[in-house]
Amino acid sequence: MLTAEEIQKTYATALKHQNAKNFDEALKIYGRLLKSNPNIAEAHYQIGRILCQTDAARSALKHLRKATELRPKEQAVWHALATAVALGGDRKTEEEFLSALKTAPVSTEFRIGLQDRFGARRSSTSPAMGGVKPSDIDRMVAAMNSGKYAEAERLASTVAQKFPKSAIARNILGAAQMCQRKIREAESNFRTAINLDPGYAEAHDNLGRLYMESERFEDAAASFRTAVGIAPGMFNALIALASAQTRLGRPAAALPLLERAIDINRTSPDPHRALGNALVRLNKHDEAVKAFEKAIELWNGTIPEDLIALLGTAQARAGKDDEALANFNLALSKNQDSPIAVTGKAQLLQTLGQFDESRDLFIRAFDLDPNNGENYRQFSASYKAKAGDPFVERMKAKYDDPRLADMDRMNIGFAIAKLLEDTKDYTHVFKYLNDANALMCKVYPYDIAKRLRDVELVKKSFDDFDWKSVKLDGTTDFAPIFVTGMPRSGTTLIEQIISSHSTVTGAGEVGEAARTAHNLIIRRGRNRHISEVPNEDLVKLGFDFEALIRDRFPDSGRITDKSIQSYMSLGILKLAMPNARFVVVRRDPRDNLLSMYKNKFPDNTHLYAYDQRDLATYYSTFVEMIDFWRERVPDWFYEVQYEELVANPEEETRKLIAACGLEWEDACLNFHENKRKIETLSVYQARQPISKASVALWQRYEKDLKPMLDALKEGGHVPG
Questions:
Q1: Under 8 Å between Cβ of 419 and 395
Q2: Residues 672-681 pLDDT 10s
Q3: Which among 216, 159, 219, 144 has a CA at the least distance from the CA of 193?
Q4: What is the DSSP letter of 55?
Q5: CB–CB of 271/258 below 8 Å?
Q6: Does an H or E element contain 273, and which?
């Protein structure tokens, strides 16, 4: 327990970090305070404020509720809780807040002010008129509504000069200027309107839209947060904030906002469209398809080509390739220069191995959407650059543009690094790689301690259990082949080899079985022992997975599931599906982790991969789990060493196919001719013959990889 003086000093240190926007450090220090004394109201309050500022308002609610319990007379605490409810709450949360507010020991005026925010789903606030007549406002608004922006600017400028304290005149003036692309003038007038009336939600919303158009996404999100905090029922601001969060790589934070927007207006397609975008980023592609389909259903009039293309993108990610291609072509028939349709079709054709047509579409996309960094990164995955390649210089010029958003610069950084390696310009690769990875760490901070805790909980759940003596009754005969290992270890290559067999379909990274198995023992940071899991739940796991696969691949015999995390729950999966086979892929960690550091993974996955020491620590936990299973069930899985496979392809491939319980077929040696869809980062390599080119590649970057190599040596994974 800290003394009062120690608490005060620690709090001051945390507040200093908070004011400097070192939010992670501030949260850690506040967390230590609460561990010492969970009833420090100030720590709960500040944690809640930080979480609201960082799009984690749902998590802020519990801290701010606790702060109101501890300091019920503090208006600032109730104000912060109201903001958290506005940003992260649903209708029930809102009702609970208003009920608690009724009995809060605060002034009547303050209570009514907060209640009015939520009253009748209030959508905005009355701005400061500053003496302007309603008839003047009507004239300005009429000019705006009829598209006469220059006239609206002239009228608003005259009114603003005559009535300098009118926030509404400045807001309309800024809106007219924004429509004419007078960005600096518009920003100045929106800011003036906000200074005149800080509670003017529409001015904050307009400023956010200006920032969105200028690709200043963090600034946009901050303005939209303020607008929604002031007016929780402001429909357009809810959608705009959700869209900004999705664009910034925080799609989970968008979901509660869009739920509220749909609740406010059930006939608008806009929140469903934004919801589809967020769900795509969350890799919930089937749900995204439904959201886009709902947006199309609600659309009044001619359906825009970009919405059709967005549906196609979600369908492609959900494995509905024929439907996706049809929608891309439909969108392009409406507008051959639709950026979303061009890019979506390019990405789909790339996964199908149609690289030439895909390349041409990506090049068109560069002109149509020149600041979209993801297009450059996707393009580089299947493009082989040569010395003096014009695409390298084009990307470098774009990368150096100071107006480029962080996420776009990150994507282009990964692309440039890949193309420089193609051209053997190894000296400059890490300049771009280190910057790109640092940007990923900034957007997706990761705590490696979470992984260490997770592994310990899993091992604790599985220890002291006689795996081989357990035989469940009534299990499925389904016999999937799980291919697992570290990302970029060669799992895609192995799946491509196995799925080239005439009786096997490559299902890619399905993930459902591994996820379900993990959830049987780990819930909300707590674990239960495998012996406590009911047998019927284990049996159900196998049948549910079989049903899922039969639905997705109705004509398949056996399938491969290349879910990276399967090794974590190998024992559970084997109990549930006794006929399943497991292939664990191993690779020299120096090459394996270098390959990970060179790539950007799908959003919210493998977040440890962007820090060299975290990579080495994570690799240690992978080895730890494989050793765990080898000690207990060594004959339940087969290990492939990547370097041995590329050195002796036929010998190692024959052993692999036999380990999967399959008869030999020559097609497994010609796996690069397999035309199946490949959606991983190995989209190009997996369609090439086996090559030794990437073996010992780490040696070219030994100095650049020093943090990772030192950590691997410390862990005993490479020679010292």
A1: yes
A2: 766 555 555 5
A3: 159
A4: T
A5: yes
A6: helix 270-281
Which residues partner with 639 through β-bridges? 584
CA distance 597 to 594: 5
Measured CA to CA, the distance from residue 124 to residue 230 in angstroms comes to 8
- List own/partner pairs for 531-539 with CB under 8 A and 24 or more apart: 531/465, 533/572, 535/472, 535/473, 538/472, 538/475, 538/572, 538/575, 538/576, 539/472, 539/473, 539/474, 539/475, 539/476, 539/576
Note the Cα 31 to chain centre separation in Å.
Answer: 25
List, in order of start, the domains of the chain with CATH numbers. Answer: 4-121 (1.25.40.10), 302-443 (1.25.40.10), 453-614+621-688 (3.40.50.300)
How far from chain centre, in Å, is Cα 217?
15
Distance between CA atoms of residues 408 and 398, nearest Å: 10
DSSP state at residue 557: S
- Contacting residues for 3 by C-beta, under 8 A, at least 6 apart: none
Read off the pLDDT of residues 154-206 as tens digits, 9 standing for 90 and up: 999 999 999 999 999 999 999 999 999 999 999 999 999 999 999 899 999 99
Calculated CA dihedral for residues 508, 685, 610, 56, nearest 10 degrees: -40
Q: Packing angle between helix 512-521 and helix 535-552, nearest 10 degrees? A: 160
Helix (H) or strand (E) holding 564: none
SS (H, E, C) 434-462: HHHHHHHHHHCCCCHHHHHHHHHHHHHHH
CA-CA distance, 198 to 192, in Å (whole number)? 10
Read off the DSSP letter of residue 529: -
The residue among 405, 439, 87, 410 whose CA lies nearest residue 217 is: 405
Q: Is 187 helix (H, G, I), strand (E, B) or coil?
A: helix
Q: Report which residue type is found at 485.
A: G
pLDDT tens-digit map of 353-387: 888 999 999 999 999 999 999 999 999 988 999 99
